[in-house]
UniProtKB/TrEMBL annotation:
Key words, A-Z: ATP-binding, Helicase, Hydrolase, Nucleotide-binding
Pfam families in UniProt: UvrD_C_2
SUPFAM superfamilies xref list: P-loop containing nucleoside triphosphate hydrolases
This protein's name: DNA helicase IV
GO CC terms in record: cytosol
InterPro entries xrefs: DNA_helicase_UvrD/REP (IPR000212), P-loop_NTPase (IPR027417), UvrD-like_ATP-bd (IPR014016), UvrD-like_helicase_C (IPR027785)
UvrD-like helicase ATP-binding domain: residues covered: 190-604
Top-level lineage group: Bacteria
Keyword Cell inner membrane: no
Alphabetical GO biological process terms: recombinational repair
Length: 766
């Protein structure tokens, strides 16, 4: 029996060599597939001409090969990361995609991590083995196996297992100890059981994932998107998946995760970007943003629209047929009532208003001419003349104009009078002052949900377009069904994994691809279409969303197939949520399910113990997640004189940059300190990025407000003036809690005045 340490090392070396052989074989297979797809792509691209059907087939074939090639190149790193040895003696390797031996009855060589057969890799424990005797974690750098970690699942192991029940603990800790790069990485190799259950939860209904900082909510949400796309490919390829994040920097931070999992058909967006054509770059006060986020804004906007449906005090006089014509109050009032009663949107109801007005005015003109002498045809002629009369049309336009959301909102927010009329029941004078701004001001993120709401209230008069489009779609579908039938008989198109065309494509999808924008993914089409509805919507940092933003997202997902991810304790925005029930009940009553994450993978216990006292000071019924790591590095504080604050913060930042040696540092400070302290940091560390800019993620230092750092993480965090953060907002405790928990290793606090009691115990740095 090999029992000595030297023997064990020899065994280990042999195992690494054996795994290397297997992993090399997998890479050979991957290369073969790449070559095959490149060859097929080149062949397809070389072909020209032919019938429309042949061209469609070629387009589809090109798209399939391109998709496949990008998937094959995405899985290059960490292609295979695990192995399961079963009671039956069978072994399965687990990796980023499925590979098969087509010369040997399609025996699986590598199992996709999302396939049901891979599940025990994430869930099996010594106490609940699910037929697994050993789980092996295979660590690789490029194509070389560098280390293995074996977990033998027997009763001895059950006794020794860590209190947090982690799988592949050494591999996990090695992943967590890596320096941060400014880009979030995927976690396929080390997904933990509580995370796996969420990732693979069914697609229907609203799933809320509540978890403290660093529990992997974002990671889980993104892996869930990849899992859902794999499992419900057909449904989701058509409608697409939307992932919503709080700001563009955050979206850049997470942007690589799904492509690295071979998935590109997902739209990443902030709520502010969901209104096509509007770039929300403007800034506004927290009060204005909060007021605009309130659900009362629905009524305010409704009132603003109704205000535009006018009746004259007495009458408007126009000249028609060289005679004065009175557009009188009572006629207008009747037409308006009829139009409003239709319950159609403003621009659609406008047609009813105009129709009523033209027929009433035609009768007036007929009376003047002597109605007894006229028949219906004459009256219709008068009506047509009225429609063609500029004066009459202008008058009616003034009474019920065609409206655009952007113009209406701009006019509402820049006119004290309009704003007062629309909001007098909901906002007081001081609140209205906070909302008022210059006409033509830049759009802000909280305007986007208002524009979307207005687009619903105003509607577009596109009935003819819609009818024509429906007809075209019917024709395309019929055509695509024919093409599909022919293609299924064509063995050439079947790819080496024996995927039949109908497995990846149905007539509906084929018809969509055949349209002029056929090479766009659903996500790309959705980005330019305000009314697009998604197959699944994932909302990250969901606690920050206002009531108005929720309305937009619910409209984008009528099926209510949603994953809502967040942490009530981290709510910073005063427009944000204080309970999931409160937020969701208007849409799904109690029909949502809750999953919780309890382990913190990011922040070490040395920092979490400080965060814990902050959380207990907040009035939230939540517990601090358990940290998986301790680093032995104690957080520290430094009290400095007020006039020295900028230079001392710059000094500490430089020191921390050295300490993390190529990692990332964040300086988190109150908004008011940005302009004072930012320049002195940049002077000392010129590569530092100042403010929220997606490119800043590449910089060694980012200087941000807490709000701007939501969802991000850094090797070291320097928190400046936490007592000011506390006093700045009613959610100040939350802000300090978020600030502390951005760190993966080190924490420094620099302050001038007394610290909040929860931070007073920090080690003092001289
Ligand atoms: N199973 C895992 N294996 C390896 N790394 C993990 C795992 N789970 C989470 N992590 C890492 O932990 C860190 C925190 O994850 P993530 O940002 O998803 O947490 P979060 O809950 O969204 O945090 P917050 O709410 O504070 O923004 C990330 O670096 C992530 O890659």
């Amino acid at each position: 029996m090999s029992d000595t340490r030297a023997d064990r090392e020899l065994d280990h070396t042999d195992s690494v060599a054996a795994e290397q052989q297997y992993v090399s074989m997998l890479y050979d297979k991957l290369d073969e597939l790449r070559q095959y797809n490149s060859r097929r792509l080149a062949e397809t691209l070389r072909e020209t001409g032919g019938t429309p059907q042949a061209r469609t087939e070629r387009d589809i074939s090109t798209k399939m090969h391109i998709d496949k090639l990008s998937q094959l190149s995405a899985v290059e790193n960490g292609l295979c990361f695990g192995r399961l040895d079963l009671d039956s003696g069978e072994r399965f390797h687990i990796g980023r995609l499925g590979l098969f031996d087509e010369e040997n009855e399609y025996t699986p060589l590598l199992i996709d991590w999302r396939a049901p057969a891979a599940r025990p890799f994430y869930l099996a424990t010594a106490a609940s083995r699910d037929g697994v005797v050993r789980r092996r974690h295979i660590r690789t750098t490029r194509r070389t196996v560098t280390d293995l970690e074996d977990e033998v699942l027997d009763l001895d192991a059950a006794e020794q297992s860590s209190h947090l029940g982690l799988a592949g603990e050494a591999t996990l800790l090695a992943a967590l100890d890596e320096r941060r790069t400014g880009k979030m990485g995927d976690i396929v190799a080390t997904i933990q059981a509580e995370q796996d259950r969420i990732i693979r939860s069914g697609m229907n209904g609203v799933l809320v994932v509540q978890g403290g900082p660093g529990t992997g909510k974002t990671a889980v949400a993104l892996h869930r998107a990849a899992y859902l796309l794999y499992t419900y490919r057909q449904q989701l390829t058509k409608r697409g998946v939307l992932v919503v994040g709080p700001n563009p920097t955050f979206l850049r931070y997470i942007g690589q995760v799904l492509p690295s999992l071979g998935e590109t058909g997902v739209l990443l967006s902030t709520v502010g970007e969901l209104y096509p054509g509007v770039v929300a770059t403007g800034r506004e006060s927290a009060e204005a943003a909060e007021l605009k986020g309130r659900s009362e804004m629905v009524s305010v906007l409704n009132n603003a629209v109704r205000e535009r449906q006018q009746v004259p005090k007495n009458y408007i006089e126009v000249t028609f047929d060289r005679e004065p014509l009175h557009i009188d109050k009572s006629t207008c009032s009747q037409a308006r009532t009829k139009a409003r009663k239709s319950r159609k949107s403003h621009n659609e109801a406008r047609k009813i208003f105009r129709r009523e007005m033209f027929s009433a005015l035609a009768l007036q003109v007929a009376d003047r001419l002597g109605r007894d002498l006229l028949d219906q045809r004459d009256i219709d002629d008068i009506s047509a003349e009225l429609r063609a009369d500029t004066g009459v049309c202008e008058a009616l336009e003034g009474l019920w104009p065609e409206l655009e959301p952007t113009t209406l909102l701009d006019e509402l927010l820049s006119s004290p009078e309009r704003l007062r009329k629309a909001s007098r029941k909901y906002f007081d004078e001081q609140q209205r002052q906070a909302l008022l701004r210059e006409s033509g001001a830049e759009w802000t993120p909280s305007d986007a949900p208002l524009l979307d709401e207005l687009a619903e209230l105003l509607g577009e008069d596109d009935s003819e377009q819609q009818q024509a489009q429906r007809q075209q779609e019917r024709e395309e579908l019929a055509y695509a069904e024919g093409v599909l039938h022919i293609m299924e008989q064509d063995e050439e198109i079947i790819d080496p994994e024996r995927l039949r065309v109908s497995d990846v494509l149905d007539a509906d999808l084929l018809a969509q691809r055949h349209r002029t924008d056929s090479d766009m993914t659903a996500a790309e089409r959705a980005a330019g279409d305000r009314t697009w509805t998604f197959g699944h919507v994932i909302i990250d940092e969901a606690q920050e969303l206002s009531a108005m933003a929720w309305r937009v997202l619910m409209r984008r997902c009528p099926s209510r197939s949603m994953t809502v991810v967040g942490d009530i304790a981290q709510t910073g925005s005063t427009a944000g949520a204080s309970s999931w029930h409160e937020v969701l009940s208007p849409y799904v009553a109690r029909r949502w399910r809750l999953e919780e994450l309890t382990i913190n993978y990011r922040t070490p216990s040395e920092i979490m113990s400080r965060a814990e006292s902050l959380l207990s000071a907040m009035d939230v019924d939540l517990s601090v997640p358990n940290s998986v790591r301790s680093t032995g590095v104690e957080p520290y504080r430094l009290r400095v004189a007020e006039e020295e604050l900028p230079t001392r913060v710059a000094e500490v930042t430089a020191k921390e940059t050295g300490a993390v040696d190529g990692g990332r540092v964040a300086v988190l400070l109150p908004a008011g300190e940005l302009s004072e302290i930012g320049p002195s940091i940049v002077e000392r560390t010129p590569e530092a990025a100042f403010g929220p800019q997606p490119e800043g993620l590449e910089a060694p230092v980012m200087v941000l407000t807490v709000d701007q750092a939501k969802g991000l993480e850094f090797d070291s965090v320097v928190v400046v003036e936490p007592q000011v953060l506390l006093s700045e907002s009613s959610r100040g405790l939350s802000d300090v809690y978020v600030a502390l928990t951005r760190s993966t290793t080190r924490l420094a606090v620099v302050h001038t005045g007394d610290l909040p009691p929860e931070l007073q115990g920090l080690e003092i740095e001289e």
